[in-house]
């Protein structure tokens, strides 16, 4: 029974890490989209390129 409990706790920990990672990825993606919009509005080509590359790497 203790082995099952330990296995369950490990699985629960992994699941929570996956949820946390996805939340962080989503938050960063939202920020990048806003920054890309700003770069487009101001005509900042370098920022646009850098930000879009980072956004691609999140996928």
Features:
59 residues, mainly alpha, Virus_scaffolding_prot_C, IDEAL domain-containing protein, IDEAL_dom
Characterise this structure.
- The protein is mostly helical and 59 residues long.
- The protein has one domain.
- It is built from 2 helices and no strands.
- The model has no long low-confidence stretch (mean pLDDT 95).
What's a concise summary of this model?
The chain is mainly α. It has two helices and no strands.
How many structural units, i.e. domains? 1
Low-confidence stretches: none
In DSSP terms (H or I, runs of 4 or more residues), the helix count works out at 2
C-alpha termini separation: 40 Å
Average of per-residue pLDDT values: 95
- Share in β-strands: under 5%
Shape descriptor: rod-shaped
Radius of gyration: 19 Å
Note the main sheet.
none
Which structural class should the secondary elements be placed in? mainly alpha
Protein name: IDEAL domain-containing protein
InterPro entries: IDEAL_dom, Virus_scaffolding_prot_C
Pfam families: IDEAL
Question: What is the strand and helix layout of this fold?
Answer:
Layout: H1 2-42, H2 45-58
Helix pairs in contact: 1-2
């Amino acid at each position: 029974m203790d082995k099952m409990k330990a296995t369950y706790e490990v699985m629960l920990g992994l699941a929570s890490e996956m949820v946390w990672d996805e939340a962080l990825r989503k938050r960063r993606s939202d920020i990048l989209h806003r920054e890309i919009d700003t770069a487009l509005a101001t005509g900042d080509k370098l920022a646009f390129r850098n930000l879009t590359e980072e956004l691609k790497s999140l996928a």
